[in-house]
Amino acid sequence: MNVNFSDDELVFRDEVRALLRDKYPADLREKQEGGIALGKDDVIRWQKILYQQGWAAVNWPVEYGGTGWTPMQKHIFANEMAAANAPDMIPFGVKMVAPVIYTFGNEEQKARFLPDILQSNVWWCQGYSEPGAGSDLASLRMRADRRADHYVVNGTKTWTTLGHFADWIFCLVRTSSDVARRQEGISFLLIDMSTPGVTVKPIITIEGEREVNEVHFENVEVPVENLVGEEGKGWTYGKVLLQHERTNIAGVARSKYRMQRLRERAARRVHDGAPLLDDRNFARKLASVEIELKALEYTELRTLAAVAVGKAPGPESSILKVKGTELQQAIDALFVEAAGYYALPCVPQQYEAGFPSTERIGSGTETQTALRYFNNRKASIYGGSNEIQKNIIAKHVLGL
Amino acid sequence: MDFSVTDEQAMLADSVARFIDNDYDFDTRQKIAGGDARFSREMWQTFAELGWTAVPFDEADGGLGGGPVELMLMMEQFGRGLVVEPFLPTVVLAGGVLRRTANAAQKDQWLTPLIGGELQAALAFAEPQGRFDLADITTTATNEDTHYLLNGRKSFVLNGGDADLLIIPARTAGQARDREGITLFALAADAPGINRSPYPTVDAHSAAEIVLTNAIAPPDSVLGGAGRGFETLRAAVDDATLAVSAEAAGILRTMHDKTVEYSKSRVQFGVPIGSFQALQHRMVDMLMVCEQCRSLLLWTAMVAASGGDDAASAISALKYQIGRSGRLVAQEAVQIHGGMGVTWELDIAHYFKRFTAIETLFGNSDFHLDRYIDLSNA
């Protein structure tokens, strides 16, 4: 057992730093620093830069364009990206639907879809949850009725993140109700968002922004070639995807970066005539989150190590999701505390490009802290709520 | 020991409750909050007609002679209704300073129209560098014989944009963070030298950053004794701290009740989610917090009403407790509502935001626990 980087790992780390130094565009870096939301084009530009480097698909098999990295290299990469505050990859294409396609899809589907995902030519979104099927996803009702060479799809998906940017959507659909277990009637279907009958409606979230949507399907015709694997096996494919989703959602590297920024913020904010960082109450809260985060980092490394020797991310990944999201939310709350009254102005216009700095209220992104805290209450709810994750752990790890 | 309220108090509580039920439902509230004006002048007129803007003032001044208990009963309902009208800044904060210090002329000029519902007011209790220390004041008031000149910056002035009257604490003596040397000035908000930048707040209220550049304060604008304004400032803010704690108690109870209702109607896995024992226990935990908070609120209101020296420490105890234990209730309420709890459309999200803002107002839980300890050891 050894906690230090090997020489090779240090060389790799320097390569990642070199990419960030040389290829991370200054305008995107400024937006990230200034809390200005990236547009669709910004995201695609950055993802294409990673693709040029051969680093767009860290976890894919090498034969499809993956990096072939060791767990430690993946860990180093994630840490360096987060430490540079580089944008996160949009996960739906490269991290969620792609593993299902290369694991369960046919050769034609792999050739058709994987290169465009790898190159960020096509934007994907996820069609899982429905208004009546949240935690109980298996109760989903969106129907795909088989005709000769196509399915006719009817139903509604909800909480579709960035569906309004998407070109394609991957959906769990019900192809049969005549089954013993509801899960056996579910199939995995890929749908072009521009197909007639697909309508995207915005959902405004708690902080007033639009990032999720309802997607309505009315007699949408989907070629049978878009079915991945076999009818009725969609639930199994979807579960594999969800386990991958959970590992990503922990967000350890991002949380580490945010803790560092929080320390810097607390060093600048004054409380009782001294930096807030020196206030024992606040310092204790910071320290206890840091320690819990270190523990989570090593839980993640242990999970990665298990995956490296061929084990799929199992139910233990639920631990990463639960603790990871709890820590993210704890950090959000500490940012609000550190900002004091400057958490409370609602001034999103400050975060549009070109806003004059002389009119700025609060320091840095202080006036975003409460809005972010509100929005991120979703983290313990999405990706399989933390309650569902605990059910999974209880059933599959504890055997209860 | 008597927990009963007087007939007048019961009628007051009732009238606010019925107003919320009949005239201030969530849709109405959202329309007002989303409008350009951000609060309703018509609603404010109604408050005045119902006597609510008169509640905490002496009968001799045209008030109703109410105190902490009356305010508590009103604010619990305002929490339940997510009322956005600036009752707190005008009646409790600015009104709290006026009722303690205004002389006859100042009462005529400011207090009478305030009680009549014709005046909006704000108390500038914070500065950019100050965090929660009320004495951390660098705004200066230099004495030019015929008047004072005020220079400095005030931050997060609740209702600052709509106020007709601004009460500005400024330093006539002493160093920043000294309690001595703070003077309270009553200024017309449109006087020269006062620059206001108003903004909405994340909980649908409003505040402003205010810059004073050689703003002229005539001698008759001084409220109370020159250099001795800190105690009044502290007392008015304590009134407001108790008021928002009551508002928060109303919010928490409402969030709890709505969560229980939701859990009975939301069906997943073929049953209402309220049938899951894990969630039942959590909703019971929420209930226990709500009851404990209400108990502490009643105690604090009674201590404050009795006028003793221990009111400040009780108020800090309450603010600490409501913030610390209430945060978990608010978070649980959103969590148990699932994805719906994070949508703009559902009221739960807005209760969550107002509760979160209250956590910070007038000092967060860490600040008030420290203050409680300091006052206990004194």
Radius of gyration of chain B: 21 Å
CATH class descriptor name of the largest domain in chain A: Mainly Alpha
- Quick one: CATH class of the largest domain in chain B? Mainly Alpha
List unreliable stretches of 5+ residues of chain B.
none
Q: Give the name of the CATH architecture of the largest domain in chain A.
A: Up-down Bundle
Task: Count structural domains of chain B.
Answer: 3
CATH topology annotation of the largest domain in chain A:
Butyryl-CoA Dehydrogenase, subunit A, domain 3
Name the helicity range of chain A.
40-55%
Q: Biggest protein-protein interface? A: A-B, 50 and 43 residues
- For the CA atoms, what is the radius of gyration of chain A? 22 Å
Mean pLDDT over the full residue set of chain B: 97
Largest beta sheet: strand ordering of chain A: 1-4-5-8
**What is the overall silhouette of chain B?**
globular
Could you explain how this protein is built, in words?
- The complex is a heterodimer of chains A (400) and B (378).
- Chain A has 400 residues and is of the alpha+beta class.
- Chain A is 46% helix and 14% strand.
- In chain A, helix 5 (91-104) packs antiparallel against helix 6.
- With 378 residues, chain B is an alpha+beta fold.
- Chain B has eleven helices and ten strands.
- In chain B, helix 4 (68-81) crosses helix 7 (230-265).
- At the A-B interface, strand 9, helix 10, helix 11 and helix 12 of A face strand 6, helix 9, helix 10 and helix 11 of B.
